[in-house]
Amino acid sequence: MRLLRFAAVRLAGMLLVLLVVTLISYLVFFLLPADPARLACGRPCSPEGLANARLFMGVDVPWYQQFWNFLYGIVAGRTFGTGAAAITCAAPCLGYSFQDNVDVLTLIGERVEVSFSVAIGAAVLWLIIGVGLGVLSALKRGSAVDRITMAGAIAGVSMPAYLAGILGITVFAFWLDVVPKGGYTPIAENPLDWAWHLVLPWFVLAFLHAALYARLTRGQMLETLGEDYIRTARAKGLPEKKVIGKHALRNVLLPVITLLGIDLGSLLAGTVITERIFGMAGVGKLLVDATAQLNLPVLLGVTLFSAFLITFANFLVDLCYGALDPRARLL
Amino acid sequence: MSDPLATTVRRAVWADWWTRLSALTVLLMIGLALAADLLVSLEGQSLRPDTSVLGPTGLPAEGPSADHWFGVEPLTGIDLFALVVHGARTSLLIGLAATVVAVLLGLLIGASAGYLGGWWDRIVGWTTDVIFGFPYLIFLIALSAVTPPSVPKPLLLVIVLGFFGWPRIARVVRAQTLTLTQRKFVAAARVMGAGPWHVFRTELLPNLWAPVIVVSTLSIPSMIGLEAALSFLGVGIQPPTASWGRTISTAIDYVEVDPLYLIFPGAALFLVTLGFNVVGDSVRDAIDPRSAGRI
Amino acid sequence: MKSKATAVLAITMVLAGCGANSGSTGGDVAKGGDLRLLDDKTTYQADPAKSQSLVVTGLSLIHRRLTSWDVAPGKTTTIVPDLATDTGKASDGGKTWTFTLKDDQKYNDGTVIKSADIKWGLERSYSPTFATGLAYHKDLLDASNAYKGPFEGTELSSIETPDDKTIVFKLTRPYGDFNWVASTPAFAPVPKGKGTEANYGEKPLASGPYQIDSYKRGVEAKLTRNPNWDAASDPSRKAYPDTITYVLGQQTGVISKRLIDDSGDDKNAFGTSFASPAQLAQIQRNENAKKRLVTSKGGALAYLALNTERGKLADPKVRKAFQYAVDKASYQVASAGGAELAGDVATTLITPGIQGRDQFDLYKAPAAGDPEKAKQLLKEAGAENLELTLVTRSEQGYPEKAQSIQAGLARAGIKVTLKTLEEEAYYAETINAANPTFDLDLTSWQPDIPSANGNIQPLFQSSEIGGGRYNSSRYRNPEVDRLITEAQSTVDPVEAGKKWAAVDKRILEDSPVVPLIYTRNSFLHGSKVGNVVIGDYPSYVDYRVFGLTK
Questions:
Q1: Residue C26 pLDDT more than 80?
Q2: Which of A36, A47, A48, C356 lies 20 to 30 Å from C220 when distance is taken between CA atoms?
Q3: Would you place residue A325 in the very low, low, confident or very high pLDDT band (cuts 50, 70, 90)?
Q4: Nearest by CB: C338 against B56, B76, B239
Q5: Domain C301-519, what fold?
Q6: Is the separation of the CB atoms in C506 and C264 below 8 Å?
Q7: What is the ipTM score, two decimals?
Q8: Is C280 on the interface with B (CB under 8 A)?
Q9: Which residues of B147-177 are buried (b: 16+ CB within 10 A; e: fewer)?
Q10: Domain B20-291, what fold?
């Protein structure tokens, strides 16, 4: 019951945060020096054509009205234009991309698979590697494994994703020719090919993040191992495996989950750089293209979508905290 | 800053050969950035294009030489050494300036929230949530497209990176302030009728330096990395201002035919971030031993 | 001096001989196979009203138009009939144009194509839902720009269809190039009453050799043969492959690498975007790939527009100094690594391959420019120590090109600050803004129709300033406006050609822009793709004649 109320409060806060994010984004985009109607006007364009295009796209009214129309569209859907050729965008309408002939939500939906495949696969990999190495380093403090892991942690944090990515491609795809040079195959089409194309991005991202998790796990582990109840457990003669596996790891999991929530949220939101390096068309590519073409509805939609993922990931983390740690003070 | 703290920091930086090497790398980069013009004129080059040093396909006619220490850029023939050292200037300037903005904002907002509490604390906490919830990379990409060209890009980057950086610092400062406020000397000052600004300056600030130093040293490399990432995506620093991120972004297309073009700026960026991270890490371990092993 | 000039000429010829495959590559082709077009776009559509596609590229695989182009290397592009029996009959001094449709032309679903369908297709292009395509016909058929398309229940009265075969256009003013305009996408038929949905272009009724069999956004579009296409009536489309697959959402770098590798399906593939300078450098090193690179002989005019409304640039004397100050040789290097792949130095506004083009050079100077002469001109005009802002796009190698212009102008003492903007922000500043603050604009222009009209009118008529139109030098000259209108209303192509050449010279005398190069485009294809042909205009591969070798 307490958990439910906690969830409800957090959910309400999340919606409020999203609303503010949308409003600020809208204001920023509205200040754009460009005219979104230009592309809808054809070549050559006439002043009348431009006015028609603005009216059609709904950008002929003041910003607050446009913002209201946008919010209203999420709840009730929108219609662009009049007569037989009018375009309807059903609720929840995050806007309509005139350049792609499709509503923004569908567009994002089609791209999500790519971004999620990259992010989730990499996260699983770095969790396994990171937590594993972390536990190992903590148990063998000062050993070679420990030192290498800790040095790797700092190197991983210092290495920009694009450098690591291009290094990976050059070595593994071009010199050794053991992985594809880029591109993406949908999982439904050929799961093996799907994984094959993702192996390199997964390992690159895992390399960048795993060390961090290893470090975190190690620190937390060392702290936990020093605590009374572990000592008691050991003193009681519980096997070491059980002490580590059941008691210590459980404590270690909390900060790891917090970090994972932050990382995964922002990673899912925009694997912009990874997608560029590995030549995959996910949400990140959608955003970059939309920026160049000033495809306002898409820009706004992706921003909102990403903000949703980040806040939602944070919300899940809080929920996990509540469930895992009975001491956690619930708001 | 109190003297014992300075000594601790100095000791931490000089702790072992690894940290020492990192600190020297950072110093070297700062030196390169400061003396960029001097060094480049010593080399006898500039940031000006020069197609006479290019081969028939627009690639450099030859590799590094006495004339061009790092070789030249394809298509333009601009000296690569000049690009790297001027890039160091851009990166460090933006990294440091953005950190200063973030620290100032974070310090003021965090300390006031912790000390004053009440509605102000709640507003700050909530704003922090909003900013954390912001997909800032996306937002930055959009924002660079929208700002009028009359706003200089480096300034814009400093402001934006600083703005998105303060909540992290404010959180640390607020937590520290909360502990401090409960201590006797702060309570005593309060009872004696000292104003908030006075308490902040005389009682809080001296005790906030330690955590602030830790977060800010670790914030510099992440700011440098962010600037490079934005320039890499084409929304950061614009030519002809040199930027590692932008050079790397162009160089990636040439990685098979002219790898040096990528290696020099790439290595510079990696080394400077690594250096700052190692030093920052060591400083943190020294100041706050309990946090050892956490990031 | 003379001997030196000959030596330079000889070197250029050697260079031209050893490198680029100008005009065409690939072996003899046979009917059949699956041609793969690797495309960086994620969206594919073939809606005639929304398209800005040239006659030779993708849209022509699906749709026929009233007229078409005859394109070949070494030959000025000429107009030929497509769906119409001839290239149109002008009467009333070029104000009325009449076309007759060929007999028994059908859509892929078997219905007969009627003249009313052409009219409907054009009317559709006025609806804001579909108004993103080429629009050269719009003000010629609706002077008031008030018509908003057929979906509101009104017709366009300027188009008459007295019977199912005949279509008559009553223009608002005499227009000699209307038969060229009739080759733009909107002159493709759309069955009357159809095409109301925004995504009509994903499954349109086809009149060309192919129809869209399936389409998945971001993945692929599969084109199969149109069973009702009448090959005998359509000599310009060869339609060799049995199927054509657009592979969508491929990044250009990946496309280039796949094509260089040339393995598996990629042997049957063609990359639809230009090879970038970095890719060109890589291709040049690979003997196998080099053979499969095809480069156009000419192309879009790259030019530096001088904002004639800004400060000292209002003075033609100052502007003339820029003709000597720029370094076109460096520009060539910055564009594609060297002159051979970048394109010849430009001295005229009308591009090669266009009827009536006259090669002249009002400001003779070496390719690298003559900064001393520029300095002297600036001194005479009292405009020393100029400090200007150059605006250009942040993609497509423009930053590097702009740096070469900046360095060139610096030699003549002109200080230039660069401002690079994302595509749409760039357009907002250069062609949308009412009072833009830039001084120089580095850009390029490829005419949409092979008439000098397409080279000149959009860029230099005073009616084309601001509001999304392309006269970014904001050049106004009543005499030039009059000459343009006169040339436009001339029906006889030879006579019109002469008039356009005169306008070209007249404009350059005022020096509102500095022509830089006729930009060459290079494309890479797989080893089994044949008949890869680029005519003198446009600088794109002719998709209509592609095929696969046995």
A1: no
A2: A36
A3: low
A4: B56
A5: Dipeptide-binding Protein; domain 3 (3.10.105)
A6: no
A7: 0.83
A8: yes
A9: bebeeebbebbbebbbebbbbbbbbbbbebb
A10: MetI-like fold (1.10.3720)
